[in-house]
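DM from R.C. (forwarded with permission)

"hey, sorry to bug you on a friday — could you get me a structure for this? deadline for the figure draft is monday and I only need the backbone to look sensible"
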Amino acid sequence: MQQQLKRGKIIRIISNLYTVLLEDKTLNCHARGKFRKEKITPLVGDFCYIDEENHYILEIEPRKNVLERPNIANMDVALIVTSVKLPDLSLKLLDKTLSLMLSNKIEPIICFTKLDLLNEEEKQIEKIINYYKECEYKVVKNTELDKIKCLLSGQQIVVTGQTGAGKSTLLNQLCPNLKLKTDEISLALGRGKHTTRHVELFKIEDFFIADTPGFSALEIKDIEKEAIKESFKEFRRYTCPFKNCLHDKEKDCRIKEAVEKEEILLSRYQNYLDFINRERSE
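My reply, with the result:
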């Protein structure tokens, strides 16, 4: 008699133990040895089939996308938590994350945090925030909880951003029952301490959201230059006089003209050039 397998989703991985969410319960499982032979590593977000009786993951469904850092699969949305102060705003990290997510067909939502810490001189950052909105990225502030929940409804979301940017704090605000650990910012280093030690999916209302260990560096070396160019949405407003312009060394480039006219944010263009030339320093 053929065994009836149950379909579930991996929501947590600690060491070699995989927590799988079924329709009405969770089950801690191990992965079959064949995955190692086939060089398949089960990830949080994977849809899988399990032997419920023996607590084994037997099959992994094909993935629509995979992120390496953090290791997670099948994400619909990336909530990019971006601090404007403590830690300071990093536009290069933000732009790199946008390129990475869009190239993986994950819709980015930028969530700016700690705006209340800005002094009068620093409030010019609001102009930068408005620029990203005008570029047709979805942009929210961490105080807009109802708006955030509306944008996340029905989705599977990865939360990402700098260490100390306020990812776990935001999740606690969205769902106080989570009670995720948060920590103080180091004034000496200007950044936070890692409080999330593993990747885990949490169900909040009608969406699943993953808190991940914070990080401050991303690799985009495997993304094609054309895909990086496409991820800079404001470039699409301009038509260069010849096809396949990379907006780098070409003459009569409309993007370079737009930068000179301050229609395109200079930091965005500089970051774009760094990315296509594979310069990844933060």
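R.C.: lifesaver. The CA atoms of residues 100 and 220 lie 7 Å apart.
me: no worries. Confidence is low (pLDDT under 50) at residues 185-195.
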